[in-house]
Structures are given as structure tokens and as C-alpha cells.
Amino acid sequence: xxxxxxxxxxxxxxxxxxxxxxxxxxxxxxxxxxxxxxxxxxxxxxxxxxxxxxxxxxxxxxxxxxxxxxxx
Length: 72
Prior knowledge:
The radius of gyration is 11 Å and the shape is globular. It has helices spanning 3-13, 18-25, 29-37, 44-54, 58-61. By secondary structure, the chain is mainly α.
């Protein structure tokens, strides 16, 4: 699974809108949409912010593993 599909699936699982996540990252919805569609690479600091926000490990959020690990 590509990381951008995991971003979308995780967001949708929590019934969040792109606007909600863009606010968390302090970016525009349009900018976040580019990350989620795979048209632009997301900086690591945004991955870290989202991992904390979603309470999942970076390897899950990046699509490396399929079972989410909760952060401690």
C-alpha cells in the first residue's frame, strides 16, 4: 500500500475531512490534498505530526506494516 492511500484511509476511518487534517498540519486543504493524492511528497515533520494525532506508528502511517501500532 502506498503511504498516500494509508493517509486517506486513516483519515476516513476517523470520519475526518481533509480540512480537519490540513488544520492540524497548519497547511491549506489543497496542499494536503496533493499529499493524499500522491502528487506531492509530504515532509517528515508532517508524518510525525499525523502519527501523533492518529496515535499510530510511523511505519503504519507510511504503509510499511498493515496492523497499526499505538504510540506509547
